[in-house]
Every structure is written in structure tokens, then in C-alpha cells.
Amino acid sequence: MTNNLINIESDQYLHKVYFFIGAATLILMVAFVYSPVSYLSFSGPDDHWMLLKNPYIKPAHYDWAYFNAIFHRVNNLQYSPLNTLYYSFIYKINGFDPYYFHVMNIIIHFLSTISVFYFAKNILIAFKIDNILPISFLTAMIWGIHPLNVEAVAWISGSKILICTLLTIVSFNLFIVGYTNKQIIKQIGSLLLFIISFFFKEQAIITPIMYLIFILCYKLNESGKLFFTISEITFLAVSFIISYFFIRITIQVNYGPALEFPPIKYYPLIQKFLLICYCAYFYISNFFFPSGLHYNYQFPFDPYDITPPEFKIYPFIILVIVVAVFYSIKKSKNQYFNIFCIFLCIVQISLELQILPMTRPAVVADRYMYFPLIPLIMTMLVFLFKFKRNKAIRQILDPIFIIYILYLSLYCYQMANYWQHLNLIKS
Q: Which of 132, 92, 87 has the alpha carbon at shortest distance from 108?
């Protein structure tokens, strides 16, 4: 009995040591690749009107009139009242000192990176996937240093994406643990974080769809049956009703009478389709091998102009990818895990593929992959770990993977450093 207690205490101690080492490694890697960001000034795109010229950043009093004003205010097609409040708190540290705004972005990214570890761990446990800890750790590592995330972290105005994503990750973590362990309090906590996240970024409206996708895939993975309990129906109904009201607010904000774009609506149907395929290709290709990333991607051709020949290739590339993914899922023993991850990514990125006209002048943006990267990385790692059992393949994969991590780290550092030269506002 005594020996068993000693072994349990020893295991718990080792778990804490491994967690500390893992967390420290993640934080050090993220700190390295984003170290240039803390020296940046304010950026021309959006920081000027969203922060520097925003009268609600430095209120005389935090009274009812102030909160009523920020929650009823739409700022240049943006509705993010809690993000305004967040800026006002940072302003109190040292005024409009960009250092503190950038450091807070990096800290939030730190917290999100650790949260991604738990997010991946809970999903892998729920779907009974092998190699839980190494896959969770590597998911957090790759996500934390991926160059596609630089825009969201280096851009002060991207804080609403950072905070909304952090809240979404924690919310979904609470939901998974609460749902799989039948803990109602955690599911309620998940709903509350979902509500709060919307007031940072409107993309939170799709969180209930994420709940539904998880429940469907989890049930099919466990029993192959789709029988819903009263509590499950109630939870989903409440979350979708809340989302319905948030969608109405989002439509009112983003598609008001003053709207001069979205640009995509001026393109004929065939060109729209080609642009959608281009967007999908951009996000998929830069997930695997990021290159040529920058802060502003203009529409590559004007409406009714001659379409560049390469754009006619993108639909075939996407078709090949879809067929390959479908075949891989069909042959996989982790079928419902893969379906969950793919659909989670599709739901998150669907708002940015120009299928619905986006009220933004850019055709794509790196920051839109901030959350969708997570399920993609998990799926990739689960697939690769299948080959780790073969010693010969492992000897090839390990050095390639190390080179890949180094490439992501150095490219992310370069991107963070390069951001200093992108249309900065002089202090």
C-alpha cells in the first residue's frame, strides 16, 4: 500500500516536472520568435482609428454612460466593445506607449499556446487517440510559432482576434470536459465565455456549430448512434438562440447602408468561384509551407478583367486535395476524429473564403488562420505519428520534422522583424 502511494506521488511529481519543462519550452520558443514585436510602433492599418483616435480609450469615468456608449457603438464596421475596454486598461499603464500594447498581445499568445496544449489533449482523449502528450505538445509548439499567426500577434488591432480565440479555446475546453464528464457547471461556463468572446470579435457566432460538430462526431465515435438527450438538446438550443441574436448584430454592423464594398460582389460568378478556390489554396498551402507572407493581399485582378491563367488551375488542385482527404478519412481508424478536425477548420475558415461577401478590402489575410490552424495541425500530427512505429521511416521523419520546426521558427522571427517596416505610424 505504501509503495503504491509512493509510486502515485512520484508519477504526479514527474507529471508536474514534465509540464513545467514543456510549458517553459513553449514560452521560450514563442518569446524568441516574437521578440522583435515588442519594439514595434503603431501600425498604419487600423491602429490609427481603432486606438489612437478612439475617444473611448481614455474615458474620464468608467460609469454607466461610458459602458452604454461602447456597447452601442459601431466603429468603422467593427463591433468589439470589450476590446475597446481592454485598450483603455492598457492605456492607463503608460498612455499610448506601443510597447505595452505589443507585450500584452504576446502574453495573450503565450496563454493561447498553453491553452492549445490542453485543447488538443482533451480532444485526443475524447476520441481515444494514441500518443496524446507528444501530439498535444507538438500541436501547441507548431501553432505557437507558425508564421501565419504573426499578423494577429504583431498587429495591435489584431488583439480582438487574439482574445476572442483564447476565449473560444478555453470555452471549447470547458465544453469538452464538461460534456464528456457530464459536468453541467463547466458547460454553463463554456456558454458564458462564448458570450463574452463575441464582444471581442464577431467570429464567435460559429462557436455553437463547433459544439454541435463535436457532439455528433463524439457520439458516432463512441456508439455509432445519434441519440440526443434532453440536456444536450437544451444546451444546443440555448447556444444557437444566443448565436442567432449575435448574427443579427453582426449583419447589422457589417452590412449597413454605408457599406461601399465587399469587392467580391462585383465579380461575375465564374471569377467568384476561382477566387474562392484561390483563397482555399492560399490557406492550405501556407499551412504546410508558409512563404511570401505579408500584411495586405489585394484582389489579384479586377472584376471582368482577363483572369490570369494560373487561377484556372486552383479548382483542380482543391479537387485533388478534397479527394485525397476523403480517401484518407475513409481508410483511417480515427475516422471521426479526422472528420471533427476537418469540419472544425472548414466552419472556422468558411467565413473568410469569400463564399459570403466579406466586408474587408483584402482577398485573404494571414490572421484568419489563427484558430483553423489548430485542428489542421492535430490532424497532420496524428497522421504522421502512424509512421513513427516504423524505425526506418522514423529515422527519416525525425530530422525532416526538426528542420521543419527550425524553418517555422526562423520564418516567424523574420516575419515579426519584417513587420517593423510595414506602414508604421511614427510616434
A: 87
